[in-house]
Amino acid sequence: MFADYHVHTEFSDDSIYPMEDVIRDAVRMNMDEICITDHVDYGVKDDWDSGSEIIWRNGEPLANVDYPAYMDKIKLLKRQYEGKIRIKTGMEFGVQTHTIPQFEALFRRYPFDFIILSVHQVENKEFWTQDFQKGRTQKEYNELGGEIVTIGSDSHKPDQLGYGIAEAQKLLKEIGFQKICTFEKMNPVMHEL
Ligand SMILES: [Zn+2]
């Protein structure tokens, strides 16, 4: 099972990788399944239809995913690539406590397969943590009975797509996991490692 469950495209403000190219490249590397997870960061970026003027920084808009265009593009590519790769509809929600209601509303608006909840910002400011989630945390999760694990590259450009997935599968197996997950309409689907 080769699945990348954390993938950005041109619909993220920090990527210009066209979604068609992402899918084409994933097919080329024999990926079985891919979940597109572009960024939404309420409080930091505006929605395209918010009514306020979108700010541009280094040629990239400080805006969330253009939702209708995103959903249409995923639908189109699903049809186009049927039988070649399974494409799932996801997003990466950069959650802050005060923006949760906005995410809940967005979640209700569209049929998602999978959502990544990330903490990227605190008090509307960007912040990055170092690798706080290395093997040890995953091992503890497994020892506590946790089974739901997806693997994703967090790819933003071509040389990152699918990166490290095989290695992550091997590491998970070594620390005791027997399965990895993909998602279908927000429900986990287990696959033997
Ligand atoms: Zn990401």
Q: What does this 3D model show about the protein?
A:
The N and C termini lie close together (8 Å). The chain has 193 residues and is of the alpha/beta class. It has 5 helices and 10 strands; from the N terminus they run E-H-E-E-E-H-E-H-E-E-E-H-H-E-E. The site of zinc ion has 4 residues, from loops.
Can you tag this structure with a few keywords?
193 residues; alpha/beta; TIM Barrel; two-stranded antiparallel sheet; 5 helices; 27% helix; globular; binds zinc ion
Précis, in short:
The protein contains five helices and ten strands.
The main pleated sheet reads as: 4 strands, parallel
Q: What characteristic shape results from the CA principal axes? A: globular
Strand content: 15-25%
Measured distance between first and last alpha carbons: 8 Å
Beta strand count = 10
How many domain regions?
A: 1
Topology:
Layout: E1 3-7, H1 19-28, E2 33-40, E3 56-57, E4 60-61, H2 67-80, E5 86-94, H3 100-109, E6 114-118, E7 121-122, E8 125-126, H4 135-143, H5 165-174, E9 179-184, E10 187-192
Parallel strand pairs: 1-2, 2-5, 5-6
Antiparallel strand pairs: 3-4, 7-8, 9-10
Bound molecules: zinc ion.
Zinc ion is lined by residues 6, 8, 92, 154.
